[in-house]
Amino acid sequence: MPELTRTEAIDLVGRYEAGQEIPERMRADVRRLGGLLGRVLRESGSPGLYEDVERLRAATIQAYTDETPEAFAKAAEIADSFTVERSAEVARAFTVYFHLTNLIEEHQRVRVLRERDGRPEREDAADSVAAAFVRLSAEVGDDTALARLQALRFHPVFTAHPTEARRSAVSRSIRRLARLLDELDIVLRNGADERRTERRMIEEIDTLWRTAPLRPEKPSPTDEVRSIMEVFDETLYTAIPHVYRRVDDALQGPGAGSRAPIVKPFVRVGSWVGGDRDGNPFVTASTTRKAAKIASEHILLGLERTASRVGRTLTLDAATTPPSPELLLLLQRLVNDDEAAALEISKRSPNEPHRRTLLLITRKIAATSRRDATIAYTRAEDLVADLRTVQESLAQAPAPRQAFGHLQQLIWQVETFGFHLTELEVRQHSAVHAKALANLEAGGPRSEQTLEVLEVFRSIVSIQQKLGPRAAGRYVVSFTQSADDLAAVHKLAAYAAEGGGSIPVLDVVPLFETFADLQAAPRILAEIVEHPAFRERLEQTDRRLEVMLGYSDSSKDVGPVAATLALYEAQAAIAAWAQENRIELTLFHGRGGALGRGGGPANTAILGQAPQSVDGRFKLTEQGEVIFARYGDPAIAMRHIDQVAAAVLLASAPSIEHRNRDAAQRYAEAAATMDAASRERFFSLVKAPGFAPWFAQVTPMEEIGLLALGSRPARRGLSVESLEDLRAIPWVFAWTQARINLAGWFGLGSALEAVGDEAMLQRAYDEWPLFRTLIDNVAMSLAKADSRIAQRYLDLGDRDDLAQLVMDELMLTRSWVIRVAGGAELLENRPVLQRAVKLRSPYVDALSFLQLRALRGLRDAAATGAPADPDLQRLLLLSVSGVAAGLQNTG
Q1: Main-chain dihedrals φ then ψ at residue 885, nearest 5 degrees
Q2: Strands 423-429 and 544-550
Q3: What is the DSSP string of 146-206?
Q4: Average pLDDT by consecutive 10-residue portion of the chain (891 residues)?
Q5: pLDDT at 187
Q6: Residues facing residue 715 across a β-bridge
Q7: Are 610 and 664 in contact (CB under 8 A)?
Q8: Which residue in 223, 218, 159, 286 sits closest to 713, CA to CA?
Q9: Is 161 a known active-site residue?
Q10: Residue 598: predicted pLDDT
Q11: Cα separation, 798 vs 859, whole angstroms
Q12: CA-based angle 258:262:268, to the nearest 5?
C-alpha cells in the first residue's frame, strides 16, 4: 500500500477527528493545543521530526479506520523505518500529545460539572449525597435517613503502589497548563489576554517537551510521601469541606450558612505511603515516623493559615456582637498563655474579642507545629473545643452567618484531618510476623529483621503520643490465613514494649487475598474475636471491626470472573457473620486502578455490593494514576467524593439491598456455571507448563521492572519461572502494555458460553448490578485492547498453543459482551467513554508499534546472548510511559 501524500494525510486526520462527536469547546481545545504542540515539534525537535510524527499518525489512523491488513502493515513499516533515536523522539511526541489530550478531557469534565452544579434536575440519586438523602428518606423516613447521613463514612486510603508512570515534574507542568486553560475560558476572544495566555501555553508545552519523561532513579518512600502531600495541599484540604458545604446547602436551602449544619464530617483520609512495608525493604520504622511528621507539618501549616485568614475577617465590634462568658474565659486563658502576642493583637483589635481569640488560637496552632510545649495544643479535640466556643459565642451574639460560615469550614477541616492529616496505616506480611515470633520465642540473638519489626511498634507508639491514636492506629496483616496470623501482631507489640515501653492502641486488620482465604474468612474471624486482645479492643470500640479484601491477588489467583463472584460471596458471608455477632463491620476494599485489580467506577461498584456489607461505611485503596485522576483537580475531587459518598448512603436503602439480594438468588445457578467455566479456562492458560517464561517473553513484564515507578520492587524475589510471587501490579501492567488486557477479562467468554442462554444473560445484565458492572468493566477493558497488535506481541513467543488460546478467548469474550450489553460494538451504551477510547486508540497504536520494534530487538539480542542495547531499552521505557498515558491506566 503506497504511503499517503501530505494532503491526503491532513484530510484523513481531519475527517477522523471530525467524525468523533466531540463538544465544540473541547474540539477547539484539541485544535489549539494540538497546533501548539506541532509548533513546538517544528521549533524544538530535530529536523523532520514533525513530518515523521504526522506520517505515523496518518498511517495509524488509516489502519484503525479501514482495518485492512495492508494498512496495518504500512503503519508498522513506517514505525520500523525510523532510527532508534528518531523512534525515541516520536514516542516522546505522542506521549506529550496524550498528556495534552488527558488534560483537555479533564478540563471538559470540569466544564460539565460546573454547568450542572446545583441543578438537581440534572442528577440522579447516585450522583450526590443530597439526592441520595432525599431518596433514602422516601424509603426509611426522615429521622432514620438523617441518622444514617450523620453516621456516613467514606475512607479513601492512598497507597504508593507503583502505577503512576509519569514524573512529578510532568504532573506539575500539566497542572500549570490546566490553569492556563481555565484562563482561556474567561478571557476575551482575539484580545491581548488571549494572546498572552496562548504565548504562556506554548512556553509550557515546550517545557513539557524538553522535560525528561522518565525518572532517573526510583523514588524513595519519603519522596512518595511528599508526592502524595501535593494532592492534599492542592485539592483535598479545601475540597473536602466544600463537599460538606454543598451537601448542607442542598439540604438546608436558603437557611444554610446561618444555622448549625446538618452534615457531620464523613470523609477520613488514610495512607499507606511510608507505612506499607509488605515486600518493600525500603520502608523502615524511621520512614514511618518521617511520613507521619511530614503529614502533620502539612496539615498544621494549612490550619494555621486558615485560622489566621478567618480570624482576620472577624472584625466584629463587641457592641454589635457581644462575646459570651465562655468566650471571655477562653480569651483570658489564651492571653495568660501568650501575653506578649496578646498585647500586640489587642492593640490592633481593642474591641474585637472574637478576632483576638481566633488570632491567639492561630498562635497556638503555630506553636503546635513547632512543638512549643508552653502553648501548643496536645490534641486536635482541644482545638475543636476552642473553635466551638468561638462559634457558640457568635451564634448567641447573634451573628449566625459568621458562626456557621468560614469558621464552620475550619472546624470541618480540623474534625476531618486532626493534627495528623492522614490516618497512617502499617501493613506487613504474615510470614514476616511468624518468622520474627519464632526468633523471639527461641531466645538467643535477635535478627536484624526481627529488630526492625519490633521498632515499627515503637514508632507507632511515638506517633500516637504526639498526634493521637487516629494518626497511626491500624495494622494490616497481608495474607491472613489463620487467627494466629492476627494474634501474632499483639504478641509482637508486647515484645516491643518490654523494658517499660508502651503498647500502641491497635486495630489489627486481616487482609484476605487468595480465593481460599476469602472462603475461610468467616471461620478465621470467628476464632480471632475470641482472642483476649481482640475481644478487649472490640469492647473499647463498641464492637467495631475492619476487614480488608484483596482484589488484585484473588484475580491473579483464579481469574477476574471467579474472583468477582468470590469477593461478593465473601462479603455476604462476612456481613452475615458480623450481624449475628453484633459487630459493626467496615469492609476495606483493596482495589487497584486497572480492571484486573478491582478498578472501574467506584460508585457503581458500591451499589452492587452484597446486602448489609456497606451499611453506610466504605473504605478503599486509591493508588498511582487513580489518585491524580480522581483527586488532582478540585472540581473532579469534589464530584468523586460526592458520588462515592452518595452511593455509600444509598447502598443501605431497602430497595437497593432487596434488588441485590433477589438478583443474586435468581442468578445463583448461572453464577455457579460461570465460576466453574471461567476458572477452568483461566487455569488452562496460567497453569500450562512453561506459561510463566512465555508470559515474560510476549509482554514487557521484565522490562517494566526497569521503570523507576515506585520504591517497592515488582517481585517478592522469585524468578520468572514462577508467577506465585509476582505482584499483581506488573501482572496487570504487562498485559495492558501488550494491548491484550488479559487480566481484566480472560475467562468471561467461556463463562458466558457455558451459560449459553443469551436472553437470560441479557435479563441478568438489566437486573443484576454485580453482573452489569462486570460486563461494563470488561467492555472497557476490551475496547482498550487491540487484537491485531496483541497478535504481534504473542508472536514474540514460541508457544502457538498459548497464543491461540488467548486470541480465541479474546474473540469469544468480545462477541458475548457485545451481545449481552446490546448494540453492534463495544461501549455503545456508554458513548462518552467510547468516544474517548476511539479518539486516542490510533495514537496508542503508534506507540505500540514503536514498543514492538524495541522488544523485538531486545529479544533477538537475548536469544544470541548479546548485551541489551541501552538505546532500545530507553525506547521501550519511553513507549511504556506513553502507552500508560494513552490508556490512562497501568496497574
Answers
A1: -65, -40
A2: unpaired
A3: HHHHHT-EEEEEEE--S---S-HHHHHHHHHHHHHHHHHHHSPTTSHHHHHHHHHHHHHHH
A4: 72 71 85 93 94 94 89 94 96 94 89 70 69 94 95 92 63 89 80 87 94 80 87 92 94 91 95 89 93 96 97 95 97 95 92 96 96 91 98 97 96 97 95 96 93 97 94 95 93 94 94 89 92 90 94 82 93 94 94 52 84 93 82 90 94 94 96 97 95 92 70 47 63 90 95 97 96 93 94 95 98 97 88 84 94 93 88 91 79 41
A5: 76
A6: 726
A7: yes
A8: 218
A9: yes
A10: 45
A11: 12
A12: 120
CA dist 368 and 387 (Å) reads: 16
So what's the pLDDT on residue 600? Answer: 59
User: What domains sit in the chain, N to C, each tagged with a CATH number?
Assistant: 6-127+165-226 (no CATH), 423-653 (3.20.20), 664-887 (no CATH)
CA distance linking residue 846 with residue 122, whole number of Å: 39
What pLDDT was estimated at residue 27?
87
Helix (H) / strand (E) containing 429: strand 423-429
Residues 6+ apart with CB under 8 A from 314: 352, 354, 355, 358, 402, 407
Among 556, 589, 640, 784, the active-site one is 556
Residue 716: the pLDDT is 44
The amino acid sitting at 57 is R
Q: How many angstroms separate the CA atoms of 22 and 24, rounded? A: 6
Look up residue 267 and give its DSSP letter.
B
pLDDT at site 885: 85
Q: What is the DSSP letter of 715?
A: B
| Contact of 590 with 800, CB cutoff 8 Å | no
Residue type at position 781: S
The CA R_g of the chain, rounded to the nearest whole Å, is 28
CA 856, CA 863: separation in Å to the nearest integer? 10
Q: Residue 225: name the closest of 288, 154, 174, 281 by CA.
A: 288
Catalytic, out of 107, 161, 298, 354 = 161
Cβ atoms of residues 120 and 250 within 8 Å: yes
Name residues whose C-beta falls within 8 Å of residue 764's C-beta, 6 or more positions apart in sequence: 663, 667, 670, 771, 820
For 709, which DSSP code?
-
Instruction: With CA atoms as reference, report the closest residue to 642 among 615, 599, 602, 611.
Output: 602
* CB-CB contact of 517 with 480 (8 Å): yes
Q: Let me know: does 430 contact 481? Beta carbons within 8 Å.
A: yes
SS percent in the chain: helix, strand, coil, step 5? 70, 5, 25
Beta 270-271 vs 584-590: how paired, if at all? Answer: unpaired
What is the Cα–Cα distance from 735 to 806, expressed in whole angstroms?
Answer: 11
* Distance in angstroms (rounded) separating the CA atoms of residues 91 and 854: 11
What is the model's pLDDT at position 148? 96
Can you give the pLDDT at residue 722?
57
242 dihedral zone (left: phi>0; alpha: psi -120 to 50; beta)? alpha
What are the distances in angstroms from CA 53 to CA 46, 47, 600, 704, 840? 12, 12, 32, 25, 15
Tell me the Ramachandran region of residue 444: left when phi exceeds 0, alpha when psi lies from -120 to 50, beta otherwise.
left
List the alpha helices (DSSP H) in 281-421.
285-313, 325-337, 339-348, 353-370, 380-396, 400-403, 406-417
Q: Are strands 617-623 and 544-550 parallel, antiparallel or unpaired?
A: unpaired
DSSP 260: -
276 - beta bridge partners? 427
User: How many Å apart are CA 695 and CA 735, to the nearest integer?
Assistant: 9
Nine cell digits for residue 262 = 446538618
Q: What is the pLDDT of residue 605?
A: 84
What residues form DSSP beta bridges with 509? 476
Q: Which three cell numbers stand for residue 667?
A: 442468578
All residues at 6 or more sequence positions from 180 whose CB lies less than 8 Å from its CB, including other chains: 197, 200, 201, 204
Cβ atoms of 52 and 90 within 8 Å: the answer is yes
Q: What is the pLDDT of residue 215?
A: 73
Residue 162, pLDDT score: 47
Can you name the residues that pair with 547 across neighbouring β-strands? 587
